[in-house]
Amino acid sequence: MRKRVAWFTMGFFFVVLLGSGVSMAQTKPIVLKLAETHPQDYPITKGDYEFARLVKERSNGRIIVEVYHSKQLGEERAVIEQVQLGAIDMTRVSISAVSAFVRELDAFQLPYLYRNADHMWKVLNGPIGEEILKKHEAYNFVGLGWFEAGSRNFYTKRPVKTVSDLKGMKIRVQQAPLMVAMVQALGAVATPLPFGEVYSALQTGVVDGAENNWPSYLSTSHYEVAKYFIVDEHTRVPEITVASKKVLDRLSKEDRALLVQAMRDAQPYQCKLWVEYEKVAEKAVRDRGCVITEVSPAEKQKFMDAMKPVYDKQPPEIMAVVNKIRAVK
Ligand code: GTR
Hints:
By secondary structure, the chain is α/β, with parallel strands linked by helices.
């Protein structure tokens, strides 16, 4: 009799367990889709994979970040809208692209803002960077953290040696009001276009030039259709990974913290790959016959002076952050 009761009890619990689907083996992982514009082997995409690896490892496989590289989920602007709505879980993008939604980011991408990469990293990894990441929540995003993207430079179909050579040229910019204003300040015609359309726009003459860092100049093959590159280093625009607040609100506080920490811990790895690859990319485009113009300190000053109207147009809230950034030693 006793035996029968024991079997019955065990059987009962087994059925309850099956019915509730709580057996560990049966718990489905949380899958988060991350949209990435760059190809699979690009140093930024490798940073995404490192983030995904850390998330998987630290959650014991409970959370899986799937990286959709090479624009599989669309161009940056469209993807960001989807993230805001909760249709895509997260994306790694340039802060320029997000600045069309989170205008406070302008304070972090103004021309000639940072003295060098170290200065930028002190800002981003310090309280000022922390504060702007938090501000993303007001726009239905969660700012997870930053990646390195070096400095941006102009490249054109016709030779450009000085700032005045850019006058009247049609220059592709990212789809961000600040980038339009920056190129206009140089007397050029700003043409905002998605990243994936730039090659054909250069080829067909829709634009005369564009601007980006060494790795993107190489990976997109823009150098084939715009071989004059001027090292004016007008901006340092960091990359950001933003998640959908709607999606992350469904996770526990601990899991959200795990994502943020994994992103932070992927950063040094991505930065290291970036610094190495910048050199590789620069050499590759030089070897392929691009005409590279280095800028003298005096000419660089002219670029800086030309950008002054961009600063003059900034609202006081942005300038308050800019002044804080400048004060970081
Ligand atoms: C790259 C950046 C991309 C994209 C691109 C562009 O440097 O990594 O995310 O924003 O620039 O110019 O559109």
